[in-house]
Amino acid sequence: MALADSARGLPNGGGVPCGGPLLTPSQSLDGGAGRRSGYITIGYRGSYTIGREAQADAKFRRVARITVCGKTALAKEVFGETLNESRDPDRPPERYTARYYLKFNFLEQAFDRLSEAGFRMAACSSTGTCAFAPEQGGLADDKIWTSYTEYVFCRD
Fold it and tell me: pTM for the full model?
């Protein structure tokens, strides 16, 4: 363990622990009878246009799709009927997938379901790119920003 990591109290070389004892994803704190520990990653793409007067005329677009990555059994447990499995319908429960998405478009609703199932946010990451909009019929000063954001949730 690096000195800087131990000074901050971070085990495992600086990784962010979910808390409690280190478990494999198939174990749980209650001896396996009940909820499984594991990770679920929620991702989405967003875009918005900003003109010359950035404060006044930002035009946000809705989130088109929220993707779900993780162990199939965990995703089904947390999201139930709101999980769209059409892109990976025959995935066995013990396998992982990155092809599921949710039937709703509200991040807060996904966060609520994860919280109710005992998951906590462990990390998040976002990227963004910018392009000028005249090609898309916008004004010469308009910029289109796109981003991809992921949230990692864990349950002990």
Answer: 0.69
